Amino acid sequence: MSDLETLQLVIFTVDGDRYALPIADVQEIIGYTTPRPIDAGGDVRGVISLRGKIIPVLDLAVRLGHPASGEQGEIIIVDGADQLVGVIVDDVDEVYTVARDTLQEMPHGSAGVLGSIVEIEDSLVAVIDLERLGAGSTLPAAEDVERLAA
């Protein structure tokens, strides 16, 4: 299969459920670091500094309707629409390659941040849509992140 026919997904867990992000959207994965709180509310836990860049951090569990994440796990740094964003997850499993035609789109308006779903190793894995994640979040605008962190 060619790269156009397949998609690599980073598989991770949040509150015991399996989710994925396309690896093309993932900049890196770091161990949990306590974010500095900012006055953004909602699912924004705060900001972290990563090699001199201030990055807002979302609690994905809250965004998905689960109880808030604890003070452990990992942070997946993703390349959002106009800024890098950290996403707190419980555990990153591994990278899987799936055939694009096995992805089933979620109906718009009914899936929140979920863009599609795929079966991997006899379980369903929901794929996060970064556009939907950013659209429904209380993420501060890229130009406001530095000011809020000061």
Describe this structure in words.
By secondary structure, the protein is mainly beta. 12% of the residues lie in helices and 47% in strands. The protein contains three helices and eleven strands. Strands 8-1-2-11-10-9 form a six-stranded mixed β-sheet. The protein has a five-stranded mixed β-sheet with strand order 3-6-7-5-4. A hairpin with a 2-residue loop joins strand 10 and strand 11 (123-128). The termini are far apart. The model has no long low-confidence stretch (mean pLDDT 84).
Topology diagram in text:
Elements: E1 6-14, E2 17-22, E3 26-31, E4 44-50, E5 53-59, H1 60-63, E6 74-79, E7 84-89, E8 91-99, E9 104-105, E10 114-120, E11 123-128, H2 130-135, H3 142-149
Parallel strand pairs: 2-11, 5-7
Antiparallel strand pairs: 1-2, 1-8, 3-6, 4-5, 6-7, 9-10, 10-11
Mean pLDDT: 84
With strands numbered from the N-terminus, the spatial order across the biggest sheet is: 8-1-2-11-10-9
The value of Rg in angstroms is 15 Å
Helix content: 10-25%
Q: Tell me the overall shape.
A: globular
* Overall number of strands: 11
Q: H/E order of the elements?
A: EEEEEHEEEEEEHH
Q: Largest sheet, if any?
A: 6 strands, mixed
Distance between the termini: 49 Å
Q: What is the percentage of strand-forming residues?
A: over 45%
Q: Please, how many helices?
A: 3
Structural class, by secondary structure, is: mainly beta
In the predicted model, the low-confidence regions spanning at least 5 consecutive residues are: none
